């Protein structure tokens, strides 16, 4: 089963930036990485006027774009999908799934925290918090990494989930 690690944190804490640094470090270690971005507000990937947008506007429940290098799927859904479902339906040929968000899931979490943004964390060990990437001190009984230590965090993830 492909392991899932959630990168969580409050808005503007640096989750995306950390993931951008973490992916190349995991790749250097030889791992194939998938990411899932959770957006509770909804999103649009189609551009107005493009063929795929026109297909959706005409009423297609599912639109797929395919090229020699990429596939994209846009599907209307009735509810927020669970990570386990997404992994089962769509994820293949990778070693790990890194998510941005899903703080309410039961999967292991690494919280990103910046002192200038928020003094308190969202998660505790009871929320399956396994580490923190931060610029401040926390005594939680989980490892704390510097915000810029993507290499150290990648090694931690490798040791915990990939070996």
Description:
- The protein is an alpha/beta fold.
- It folds into two domains: 4-40 and 80-162, Rossmann fold (3-Layer(aba) Sandwich), CATH 3.40.50.300; 44-77, no CATH class.
- It is 26% helix and 24% strand.
- The chain contains four helices and eight strands.
- The chain has helices spanning 15-28, 51-57, 83-90, 150-162, and strands at residues 4-8, 33-37, 62-66, 71-75, 96-100, 109-113, 129-134, 144-146.
- The strands form two sheets. A six-stranded parallel beta sheet has the order 2-5-1-6-7-8, with helices on one face. The protein has a two-stranded antiparallel sheet with strand order 3-4.
- Helix 1 (15-28) packs across helix 4.
- The two termini are 13 Å apart.
Count every helix, treating DSSP H or I runs of 4 or more residues as helices. Answer: 4
Strand portion:
15-25%
**CATH-derived topology of the largest domain:** Rossmann fold
Query: What is the oligomeric state here?
Result: single chain
Number of strands: 8
Query: What's the architecture of the largest domain, going by CATH?
Result: 3-Layer(aba) Sandwich
Q: Roughly how much helix do the residues carry, as a percent range?
A: 25-40%
Global structural class:
alpha/beta
Can you tell me the CATH class of the largest domain? Alpha Beta
Major sheet summary line: 6 strands, parallel
The H/E string reads EHEHEEHEEEEH
Largest beta sheet: what is the strand line-up? 2-5-1-6-7-8
Amino- and carboxy-terminal Cα gap: 13 Å
If you compute it from the alpha carbons, what radius of gyration comes out, rounded to the nearest whole angstrom?
A: 17 Å
Can you give the mean pLDDT?
92
CA-based shape: globular
The tally of domains stands at 2
């Amino acid at each position: 089963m492909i392991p899932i690690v959630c990168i969580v944190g409050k808005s503007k804490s640096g989750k995306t930036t950390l993931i951008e640094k973490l992916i190349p470090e995991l790749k250097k270690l030889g791992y194939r990485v998938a990411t899932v971005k959770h957006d509770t507000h909804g999103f649009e990937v189609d551009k107005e006027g493009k063929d795929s947008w026109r297909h959706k506007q005409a009423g297609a429940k599912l639109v797929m774009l395919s090229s020699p290098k990429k596939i994209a799927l846009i599907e209307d859904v009735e509810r927020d999908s669970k990570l386990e479902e997404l992994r089962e339906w769509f994820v293949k040929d990778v070693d790990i799934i890194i998510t941005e968000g899903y703080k309410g899931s039961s999967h292991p979490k690494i919280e990103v925290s910046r002192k200038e943004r928020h003094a308190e964390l969202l998660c505790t060990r009871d929320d399956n918090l396994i580490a923190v990437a931060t610029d401040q001190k926390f005594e939680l009984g989980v490892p704390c990494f510097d915000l810029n230590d993507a290499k150290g965090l990648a090694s931690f993830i490798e040791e915990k989930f990939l070996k």
